[in-house]
Amino acid sequence: MLALLILAILVGGSLQRVAGMGFGLVAGPFIVLLIGPIEGVLFVNLVGAMMALLVLGRTIRGVDWFRYRWLVTASLLVSVPAALLLKNASASVLEISVGGIVVVAMTLALVTSRLRGAKRPFAPEARLPLLITGAAAGFGSVAAGIGGPPIAVYSVLDRWDPRAFAATAQPIFLTNALAAMTAKLLVADAMFPDLAVWEWAVIGVALVASIGLGELLVGRISASATRKVLVALAYVGGFATLGRGLIGLV
After folding, report:
1. Could you tell me the sign of the dihedral formed by the alpha carbons of 18, 177, 72, 92, in that order?
2. Mean of per-residue pLDDT scores for the chain
3. DSSP string covering the chain, please?
4. pTM of the model
5. Share of the chain above pLDDT 90, in %
6. CB 27 within 8 A of CB 186
7. How far out from the chain centre does Cα 38 lie?
């Protein structure tokens, strides 16, 4: 199990360094399958926060703090109510809901993007889209450990530069993960997986190694390719979460 965890962290972490997101989307579903729906999501929140902090150290100069403030404000306001609402909810139903919404939202974003060409559907400084996106990301973080797809949808609609998105996403993911962990530990009585100290140490090494792997790739991938990776990751996360929920329901 530890070997599979390390592999998931290496792949997800390198993608997060390149595209700004990827750990929760790619590694998250596999980690939850390995550890379980409750402890697994909490583990994804914890390791995701550490991953975002490491990437932020490399990208902090490119962070758009205006967008960050509005996205995180909405996300934090949603976290505790979402934890209370989801305390006794079926994990499978939640995953089906989150996964389905992500797939539909990204599809609509791509269709809208193609119909409008290079024109934004809203002004860059518009705050309502940021608030809606932040609330959706906060709910996704609490419900399934996945808060990236709503932000990816926003980035597609906003024509957000991929490099700026990759930088700004890190403090958002860090804040969301910490808020989701705190809400679930205090409200939902969740617990971290029972791993030995040496296992946690190996996981920490894997986190750092994944960032190093991403550094080797980030300078060799164009902005256009990065955007395609971003869209693909959103779909992978959405379908994986949807599939996991359907399997659990059956």
Report:
1. positive
2. 81
3. -HHHHHHHHHHHHHHHHHHS--IIIIIHHHHHHHH-HHHHHHHHHHHHHHHHHHHHHHHGGG--HHHHHHHHHHHHHHHHHHHHHHTTS-HHHHHHHHHHHHHHHHHHHHHHHHHHTT--SS-TT-SHHHHHHHHHHHHHHHHHS--HHHHHHHHHHHT--HHHHHHHHHHHHHHHHHHHHHHHHHHS--------HHHHHHHHHHHHHHHHHHHHHHTTS-HHHHHHHHHHHHHHHHHHHHHHHHHHH-
4. 0.76
5. 16
6. no
7. 17
- Are 182 and 46 a contacting pair, CB within 8 Å? no
Rounding to the nearest 10 degrees, give the CA dihedral for residues 204, 210, 211, 215: 160
Residues written for the chain = 250
Q: How far is 37 from 11, CA to CA, in rounded Å?
A: 21
Is 147 exposed, middle or buried (CB count within 10 Å of its CB: 0-12, 13-18, 19+)? buried
Tokens of 185: 């530990």
Nearest residue to 69 (alpha-carbon basis) of 19, 21, 127: 127
11: left (phi over 0), alpha (psi -120 to 50) or beta: alpha
What pLDDT, in 10s, does the model give residues 97-137? 777 877 776 777 677 656 555 566 677 778 999 999 999 88
**Pair 221, 18: CB distance under 8 Å:** yes
